[in-house]
Structures are given as C-alpha cells and as structure tokens.
Amino acid sequence: MYAYVLLALAGLIYPAGGKPACVPHARQNFTELARASGLGALEYEVQTDDYYFLKLFRIPGAGPPVLLMHGIFDSADTFVVRGNGSLAAHLARRGYDVWVGNARGSWYSRRHLYLDPDRDDEFWDYSFHEIGVSDLPAMIDFVLEKTGRPRLSAVGHSQGNTIFYVLGAMRPEYNAKIDVMIALSPVCFLNNLSRAVSILTEAFPLISGFLAVAGREEVFGEGSVARVLYEEVCGCGRGYDVCARRLYFPIAGADPHELGPDFFPTVVRHYPTSTSRKNLLHSALLSLRKSFSQYDYGPLNLDLYNSTRPPRYELRNVAMPIALLVGQNDGLSAVKDVEALRDSLPNVVEYVVLPYERFNHVDAVWGRHMNKYLFPYIDRVLQKYASDRNITKPEA
User: How far apart, in whole angstroms, are the C-alpha atoms of residue 311 and residue 307?
Assistant: First the structure.
C-alpha cells in the first residue's frame, strides 16, 4: 500500500510521460561522510546470538566510549549526515570514543550466517524486541571488549532508545554496563500522537495484512519500487514541498528552519533504509494497545507467553541511569507520553523539555543548529555520568 501512496505522489509531480527534475546523487557511506568532516572511521562486524551480522562504526578517541543508536527506518548515517554539525562529529571532537551501531535490517546490517535477506522471509522475522535483546548486547559487549572498559554511555534516538528499555527489562544484567543512556525524542508510550501519526497507526494493521499476503516482509528495501519512487518524488523537483511539508512535518512536527530544502535531498539519499513489517506492526501496536508490551502473536500468545496477552516490559527493571530529552513540537514523542515514561522508570537522572519550542522528532539528528539547542544538554549529561575509571589499554 505504501507503494500506491508513492505512485500517487509521483503522479502529482511527474505527469504521464514526464521525467524527474533531477537525479539524486550517489549516497556516501558512513566512512565517506566521516572523512568529509576530517574524521577517520573504522568498521567492524558484530555477530549476534541469533547469527545476524551487524556493522559497527568507530571514530576513535581517548575518552570514554559512547554508543549511538539510530531509530526506525534509519542507520548510522543519521549521526554523521550533517557533517561537522552532526552529533558523532561533535562528540569525536570533544575526545569521546564514538561508536555508532546499525540494527539488523538496515543497509549496513543485511547479513546472516544462514539466511538471505533477499530470499528468506525468516531474516525479517524480528521487531525492536530482538534488536533490544540480541543486537544491543552484542554491540555493547564488543565495544567493552575492544576498549577494555567496564561500562559505556549511550545516546539513542527514537526507537534507538526504546531498545534500551527492552534491554534493561529483559536482560537486566546489562544495566550495570551503561553509565548513562541519553534518550533523544524518547519512544515508549505512544498514547498522545499527532493526528497524522494516529491515522497511520490505526491503518497499519490493515496495511500489514496486505504486505503479509503479498509476501513483503521487508519494507523499503534498497532498489524496491517504493524506494525508487520515493527518491524520484522526494529527492527532486517539488520534493521538499510534497514530502517534507506534507509528509515529514505532519508526522515529526514542522520545523522548516532546521530542516530546509537545501538539506532535504541529503536526507532522501540516506533515509529511510529498510526494516521489517513486524517491526512496524509492533510499533503500531504500542499505540493501539496503549501498553509497552512484547509482540502480540495472537492465538500463539498462550503457547509463547502462557497468557492470551503479550506481557508488558517491566520498566522497573530498567535500572540504568537515563536522561530524557523531549521536544514540545514532536508529533511522535509527546511531552505527556515522556512524562509517563519518566514516572515509570526507576532511575531517571535528567528530564529536560528543550526550550527550543519548534524542536521536533528529527531535529535531534538532522537539525541545522543542534550545536545550539541540543548538544549543550548532551555534553552536560556525559560530563557528569560518562565513566573514565578502570581503564585498560584499548585493543588496536
């Protein structure tokens, strides 16, 4: 169904027989983006306990390690795509040892020991649950082994912090390995969404059913019809007016000052990457069921959970220190929902409603002036909680 939407948009911009106003430039990868900012990046591949291989990038520094995790439909690129104004570049220049992860399914993490993402639907049988209980532990353990440190700090954007709540609830031994987790645009409870997001959420179970019948377990895969149409519609011509103003802003919150037409084609080249139908459905169900719970397998719940309903994640087990940074103009991460999250977690060390009133869901990673309205808060938290103790010599 998302392909039909994009086809309709394409019809608005390119009438029959028409051609795109431009051709999007080739996408630079993470190391190329880092190099353009004068930073060297290393690449590693980490294997999970269920045999996925994940790409993990590192911008080496002498300071404490900080792991950055992206949100849904995103990749590590989101933390370097703004060049010297990006979070990864900012932290690297402050001396931190910056690590940037990629969840399974993104274009950097499309490998499995046994499964082929292009042929085997089983590859896409995951949601943010598996990212939290398998991907995150593998990356955290790898970083700590490489650096010789007992703990790391983390910054997660959107679903990139949801997975830490899953980790802390389901594998509580990992709470002790995290000095602080800074949650940007926190996503956990989704009870006060914007109207546009509510409409999409309510429609997605039906869309998911169509995708399942069509055998489309991967959503927005590289080279797919949807991806090609998206690039032609959003990356060219009137793309900013049609896609940023009419699609992104109603969902994320409008802020043309921070995400302008000059930068939007760059966003289109790097976002979205692919994810699973199951991940999208699990995310939608958080809102529809008004519960931060595990995936709903319907009739199979009784066998899997010994209950007709999926169990809730026990947020009281999430003992890691957490800093919540929320925007007043965020269509996905409403202040009321973040307040509920704050009251449910046992160890919230910072709670900040950012004073920049237009701060929306994507300003945390793509904003033009993040150095002014966001980075000072991140710096303050890391200076206070990032551990520089019990250091051993890092592995080369």
Answer: 8
Give the closest residue to 326 by CA, choosing from 188, 207, 211: 188
Tokens of 193: 């969404």
In the chain, domain spans: 2-385
202-218 pLDDT, tens digit per residue, is 999 999 999 999 999 99
Q: Of 236, 230, 240, 242, nearest to 261 (Cα)?
A: 240
Which amino acid type is present at position 351?
Answer: Y
The conformational region for residue 370 under phi > 0 = left, psi -120 to 50 = alpha, else beta, is: alpha
What letters, b where the CB count within 10 A reaches 16 and e where it falls short, cover 373-392? Answer: bbbebbeebbeebbbeeeee
Q: For the CA atoms of the chain, what is the radius of gyration?
A: 20
In this structure, the chain runs to a length of 396
pLDDT digits (tens, 9 = 90+) for 219-228: 999 888 888 8
Quickly count: other Cβ atoms within 10 Å of residue 61's Cβ.
Answer: 18
Question: Which residues are known catalytic residues?
Answer: 158, 361
Rounded distance between C-alpha atoms, residue 15 and residue 19, angstroms: 8
The answer, yes or no, to whether residue 111 has pLDDT greater than 50, is yes
365 membership: H or E segment, kind and range: helix 363-366
Please tell me the CATH superfamily of domain 2-385, with its number: Alpha/Beta hydrolase fold, catalytic domain (3.40.50.1820)
Q: From CA 326, how far away is CA 72, in angstroms rounded?
A: 17
| pLDDT-derived band at 237, boundaries 50, 70, 90 | confident
Average pLDDT of the residues in 66-95: 98
CB 374 within 8 A of CB 366: no
Residue 388: predicted pLDDT: 67
Record the pTM: 0.93
Tokens in use for 288?
């529809």
Q: Give the integer Cα–Cα distance in Å for 210 and 303.
A: 26
